[in-house]
Write a structure and sequence with these properties.
The protein has 286 residues and is mainly beta. The protein is built from two helices and 16 strands. The protein has helices spanning 2-19, 80-83; strands at residues 22-28, 31-38, 41-50, 53-63, 66-71, 96-104, 124-136, 141-156, 160-165, 168-173, 179-201, 204-226, 229-234, 242-252, 255-262, 276-284. The strands form three sheets. Strands 6-7-8-11-12-14-15-16 form an eight-stranded antiparallel β-barrel. Strands 1-2-3-4-5 form a five-stranded antiparallel β-sheet, with no helix packed on it. A two-stranded antiparallel sheet has the order 9-10. Strand 1 and strand 2 (31-38) form a beta hairpin. The longest helix has 18 residues, at 2-19. Residues 1-5, 11-20 and 71-84 have low confidence and may be disordered. It comes from Marseilla massiliensis.
């Protein structure tokens, strides 16, 4: 009986020893590596060292031939529970932008509008982005939108001014002096809705976006200068209060290049010449 009890005790001790975890710790290139083996479950943990502080950065477990990996992200600004989430999408619209805004004969055409005697090299726009929104579609695509506000000036050649008489708008030739500058101007608010591809390249954002935009216009005026005298021809140019555009935007880091083509005419065609906007320019992000 005594011999049997001793055999049972020895077997229990050997079982307990096999089931207890065995840790092995060593240091390689300033990183602490800990190997733990317990009942067929082998775990490898890697820690980065910062003086007396240890931060686990990687862990691999082997159980029944299966490998399980975990990567740990540490930051004083990002909680560990958030650090493993996907990067949030951004809306890459310029804070400030400026460029040419020309008048064409039809949508997507180039070469100006000879019937309106346009002076495209002097026609321009500027604007600011007041607010943005981004919603993830896939890992590299996002649906973005913004609210933009600004002002546009369309210039004309020679002594031609845009005039409205009895509700009809047309080009008029001024014959009481040399016109130094002739233009129409208006304010706008634009809301684009674009599909944007975005990626991180060289530590900065690379992006390309395409989509429509809705434009609301107000306070339109037709003005011209004879010498230093500024004259208002009309404050009713029969401008369309709403317009629809197709926009393209691309850029890298802080620089944005954009293009925009109007799908609807700028002026009401029933009582004014037909013309479509074509714009392109540069913007900056912060």
């Amino acid at each position: 009986m005594k011999t049997l009890l001793m055999a049972i005790a020895a077997t229990a001790a050997m079982t307990a020893k096999a089931a207890s975890p065995v840790d092995t710790t060593f240091t390689v290139s300033g990183k602490r590596i800990v190997l733990t083996d317990s009942a067929g479950h082998t775990r490898v943990s890697v820690y980065s060292t910062d003086n007396s502080r240890l931060t686990r950065t990687y862990e691999t477990s082997y159980v029944d031939g299966q490998e399980i990996e975990r990567v740990y992200i540490s930051s004083p600004f990002i909680p560990q529970t958030v650090g493993r989430k996907k990067r949030s999408p951004k809306a890459h619209y310029p804070l400030f932008f400026m460029g040419f805004n020309t008048l064409q004969r039809s949508a997507f055409s180039t070469g100006g509008n000879p019937a309106m005697h346009t002076r495209d090299s002097k026609s321009w726009e500027w604007g600011i982005t007041c607010a943005t929104m981004a919603c993830r579609l896939t890992s590299g695509l996002a649906l973005t939108s913004a609210c933009q506000m600004g002002r546009v000036h369309h210039h004309f050649q020679g002594n031609y001014v845009l005039s409205t008489t009895d509700g009809a708008t047309s080009m008029r030739l001024v014959d009481d002096g040399d016109v130094r500058k002739s233009y129409i101007s208006y304010g706008y608010m634009r809301i684009p809705l674009m599909i944007e591809w975005q990626s991180r390249t060289g530590g900065d954002d690379l992006f390309v976006a395409l989509g429509p935009s809705v434009e609301m216009r107000w306070k339109d005026h037709s003005r011209y200068y004879v010498g230093d005298e500024k004259r208002t021809e009309t404050s009713d140019t029969n401008i369309n209060p709403l317009g629809l555009n197709l926009e393209l935007r691309m850029g890298y880091r802080y620089v944005v290049v954009y293009g925009r083509a109007a799908l609807t005419p700028l002026l009401k065609t029933a009582s004014a010449p037909k013309c479509y906007q074509l714009a392109f320019g540069l913007g900056v992000r912060i």
